[in-house]
Specification:
By secondary structure, this protein is mainly beta. Helix content is about 5%, strand content about 40%.
């Protein structure tokens, strides 16, 4: 083929490929009943959100985010939102790394770290000042929060103290769940009502994965148990023991995962968090910390969820299916993956790709979070998605849902307006919750910088026309948004969207 003919053909093929990718992104169906709400009226330093729904009263939903610790609440299943007061620590300059849950009494909890000043960048155990992990309770669905700040772990400003980081709170609320369609009754956990918090402790020489438990509605917390097989590296980077997530089964078993040494690590407690099995790597990943264009940093830390349906006494295949999600770049660009286990974590399936865009298309998907619906058993994953931007810089938010035990995932557009995140701290995670077919996602966005009129412009010497005031750039920042999706309508009404 002559060069004159080959060049137009290559251009045509490139255009077709670009149009194919664009068409694919445009045909992503909208999440059924999708609504999106902003929790922050103006941009600020808002990141790292989490969300939970009350299994006792599904109308109550609590959303939390930093910086400092903030909470918002809904009393109508996510259709309207209100800001709560008195959530942040009054004893420390900074509070963040928040998470939230409801216990089996319907009480809401927010968990957070608090400190005055960080130590050496990414080597947090070096030069650490006083810091700790704390919880607050709400007895009315997140509307008001108790003034008492309950200590889980705390260190005064003494030389060589560790730094507590990235805690995540988990509740054994199985006695509150399991009465909906498709379920077979409440759980039989002997530890119902227990609360668990897992986190990373940074020291001068390593990173430790610790778990503490409470059996008195969060009033007191046990001395933490170190569950890692060996400490990770002491730097907030690849090789550290980091990214705790947990799930509780109907029988009260606590399953925990985190990332370390390019593996998803896994352990089980069968006695309410007193002791744990020897940690082991269950899934090998690419390095879990990575760079993404426009972002300062990103990670693919794992999450774990469990199907609480079924009947344990009848070997119901649904009962106790475990799901683990994470993201890595084994395919070049970042993808979201899911693996499952039907034997309490002894064996795991081959990873399934959660995002359904073409493999090796150069589009990044990242910052996923997982929620397994305890009523309908669906696995729901929220993540940022760049499939619609050929330059791989702007993202939308996608909801992926599996109703076949994690064998496949249907992708839905939760948002359609792409945004670029740059020049701001974007955090380490997003959040999601699901109950009875209603799904609640929470994430960080960076609004487009809008110019504000009224600033004075410097006159130009050669200006031929009258100089008009130029617009001043609005201060950059981030906002927190909540997405609601509803799969309770008849399948035909949303499957066709």
């Amino acid at each position: 083929m002559s060069r004159a003919l080959r060049t137009p053909l290559l251009i045509t093929l490139a255009v077709i490929a670009s149009l194919s990718t664009l068409l694919h992104s445009q045909t992503l169906p909208k999440a059924p009943g999708a609504e999106v709400f902003s929790l922050t009226p103006a941009p600020g330093r808002f990141t790292e959100p989490a969300i939970a729904v009350n299994p006792h009263n599904p109308e109550q939903v609590v959303a939390v985010f930093q910086d400092n610790a903030h909470a918002s609440y809904s009393q109508d299943a996510g259709h309207t939102w209100h800001a709560a007061e008195g959530v942040a620590s009054a004893n420390y300059r900074t509070s963040g790394d928040v998470s939230t849950t409801f216990d089996n009494q319907g009480h809401a909890f927010i968990c957070y770290i608090a400190f005055d000043k960080l130590g050496t960048f990414n080597y947090w155990g070096h030069g650490a000042t006083r810091n700790g992990i704390f919880v607050r309770r709400s007895l009315d669905g997140g509307k008001t929060w108790e003034s008492k700040q309950i200590t889980v772990s705390e260190f005064a400003s003494d030389p060589g103290i560790p730094f507590e980081d990235k805690p995540y709170i988990v509740a054994d609320n199985t006695s509150s769940i399991g009465t909906g369609a498709g379920a077979s009754g409440k759980g039989t956990s002997p530890y119902a009502g227990s609360l668990y918090i897992g986190w990373t402790r940074w020291t001068l020489t390593g990173s430790e994965m610790l778990i503490s438990r409470s059996t008195d509605d969060g009033e007191t917390w046990s001395k933490p148990v170190e569950v890692d097989r060996h400490p990770g590296l002491p730097r907030d980077d690849n090789g550290a023991a980091e990214g705790f997530a947990g799930a509780v089964g109907r029988d009260g078993r606590l399953y925990a995962v985190w990332s370390q040494d390019n593996d998803v690590m896994f352990t089980i407690s069968r006695d309410g968090g007193k002791t744990f099995s020897r940690a082991r790597g269950i899934l090998h990943t690419a390095p879990i910390m990575f760079a993404i264009d426009t972002l300062d940093r990103a990670n693919g830390f794992p999450q774990i969820g469990i199907d609480l349906r079924g009947d344990d006494r009848r070997n119901d295949a649904r009962s106790g299916r475990l799901y683990v999600t994470w993201s890595d770049y084994r395919n070049g660009d970042l993808d979201i993956f899911c693996a499952t286990s039907t034997d309490a974590g002894k064996k795991w399936s081959e990873p399934v790709r959660v995002n359904d865009d073409p493999v090796h298309n150069g589009a990044e998907q990242f910052f996923q979070w997982l929620a397994v619906d305890p009523i309908d058993g669906s696995a729901n994953v929220v993540f940022y998605d760049r499939r619609g931007d050929p330059k791989n810089r702007k993202q939308t938010v996608t909801l992926a849902r599996s109703t076949d035990g994690g064998q496949s995932f249907k992708n839905y557009a939760w948002t359609t307006e792409p945004f670029e995140a740059g020049g701001v701290f974007f955090g380490d995670y997003s959040g999601i919750a699901a109950l009875g077919g209603k799904v609640y996602g929470i994430w960080t966005e960076e609004p487009a910088v809008v110019a504000e009129a009224g600033s004075k412009a410097e006159a130009k010497p050669d200006a031929a026309t009258e100089t008009k005031p130029e617009a001043a750039p609005r201060k950059r920042g981030t906002v927190i948004k909540v997405g609601v999706a509803d799969f309770t309508a008849p399948a035909a009404s949303w499957a066709a969207q």
